Amino acid sequence: MTDFDHIKGLFHLPEGVIYLDGNSLGPLPQAAPARIASMVRDEWGDMLIRGWNKAGWMEQPGRVGDRIGRLIGAPPGTVVMGDTLSIKVYQALASALDIVPGRNVVLTDNGNFPSDIYMAEGLIRSLGAGHELRIVDPEAVEAAIDDRVAVVMLTEVDYRTGRRHDMANLTKIAHAAGAVCVWDLAHSAGAFPVDVLGAGADFAVGCTYKYLNGGPGAPAFIFVSPDHIDKVQPALSGWLGHEAPFAFDLDYRAGSGIERMRVGTPPVMALTALETSLDIWDQVDLADVRARSIELIDMFIAGVEAGCPSLTLASPRDASIRGSQVSFRCADGYAVMQALIDHGVIGDFRAPDIIRFGFTPLYIDANDVKSAVSILENIMTQRLWDQPRYHERQTVT
Ligand SMILES: *Cc1c(COP(=O)(O)O)cnc(C)c1O
Fold first, then answer.
1. Annotated catalytic residue: which of 11, 113, 203, 328?
2. Which one of 265, 281, 297 terminates a domain?
3. Ligand 1 centre and the CA of 250: distance in Å?
4. Within the chain, what is the greatest distance between any pair of CA atoms?
5. Cα 381 to chain center, whole Å?
6. Tens digit of pLDDT for each residue in 335-394?
7. Cβ-Cβ contacts under 8 Å for 275 (sequence gap 6 or more)
8. Does 69 reside within a domain?
9. What CA–CA distance (Å, rounded) separates 291 from 270?
10. Do residues 101 and 151 touch, judged by C-beta distance below 8 A?
């Protein structure tokens, strides 16, 4: 059984803040500053270039990938770290299209995160091979899988509403129709148990700065099914994905297994920060996280619906089809969220009218939920949000 009280103490959370935005940027592990400082001083400082061998920097993307693998049901040697999620989406989709020749549709839904869709558009343009991006409603994905679909590219949990696709079922349907699946786990990894192998996912990608608490700009991960990895010819054929990077050959030969999905020099400092969070994840059972997250969200929904009748639930009420976040529609959502943040409850706003709250049992408990509900209720009933300063838009919402 996960000891959540102990786990909460392993994070730095500022005084007076209830942090309901860990689905966008997780908080700082207490151990991170000292670990990063010692990496900088003892490894970069004293080892200099010898750190690549002596401190294991070169193997770090695979080593950390295996630790992420444990959280998403991926066996050792099938996950590697690097780059940003947008890049990993591009890589996964390019590889997926490569292994399904003769079909020209990439199917996705309009609940997908825009960057995934933009990357698909860019890839299709550079391939110039007549692929078409088909974007349908989330509920229409299943019916849209036909014999022209090469790749079904979906984000499991909708970033705005928290609606969750049935990954195993859609993958099964896609496979039966002869397509392969790319799953984006940005709002899944660290939010609930994920089983990429059990679901039969062909490719899966995700970031590590959201529920996984790796810090701003923490590197992304990519999983490729053992069934495909040896057939995949990486579109981003960088030297560190080469079979022998230090042979400096003039022709590219893909490295063995998942190593071929590496591109260039790994972000050692960022991976080191992420490792301090993974030390915490080693003490956590994701089934406990899921159970606790459902409890907290159900409590929050009940409280908000009782105290703030003008807000309408934009997330599924049924926890089995919901991720670890909950959203409400709110006409003056931007100002309401600014007022909330000013009163110590940090969530976020997604245009045009969604206020969104992430529930992360590693450091959010029932008392936090009760306080957040009463602060929100006060802001709504007293109209505290209706002040000019709360209407001024900032760059990052
Ligand atoms: C957060 C998120 C991204 C962000 O991609 P980056 O390249 O890391 O900025 C992409 N896709 C999805 C589904 C996300 O939730």
1. 113
2. 281
3. 33
4. 69
5. 35
6. 999 999 999 999 999 989 999 999 999 999 999 999 999 999 999 999 999 999 999 888
7. 35, 64, 67
8. yes
9. 30
10. no
Task: Looking at the structure, tell me whether residues 43 and 11 fall in a common domain.
Answer: no
* DSSP character at residue 46: I
CA dist 131 and 102 (Å) reads 10
Q: Which of 207, 208, 274 to mutate to test the pocket of ligand 1 (most atoms within 8 A of CB)?
A: 207
Ligand 1 site: residues with CB under 6 angstroms? 84-86, 113, 115-116, 155, 159, 184, 186-187, 207, 220
Q: How large is the average pLDDT for residues 68-87?
A: 98
Same structural domain, 224 and 78 = yes
Identify whether residues 331 and 268 lie together within a single domain.
Answer: no
Based on the fold, state whether residues 52 and 157 are members of the same structural domain: yes
Pairwise CA distance, residues 254 & 346, whole Å = 45
pLDDT at 252: 97
CB-CB neighbours of 192 under 10 Å? 22
Question: Mind listing the pLDDT tens digit for each residue in 305-326?
Answer: 999 999 999 999 999 999 999 9
Q: Where among 260, 281, 302 does a domain terminate?
A: 281
What is the pLDDT confidence band of residue 95, given thresholds at 50, 70 and 90? very high
Residue nearest to atom 2 of ligand 1 (CA): 186
CA 86 – ligand 1 centroid, Å: 6
- Asked, for residue 385, whether it belongs to a domain, the answer is yes
Does pTM top 0.90 for this prediction? yes
Residue 252 and residue 327 in one domain: no
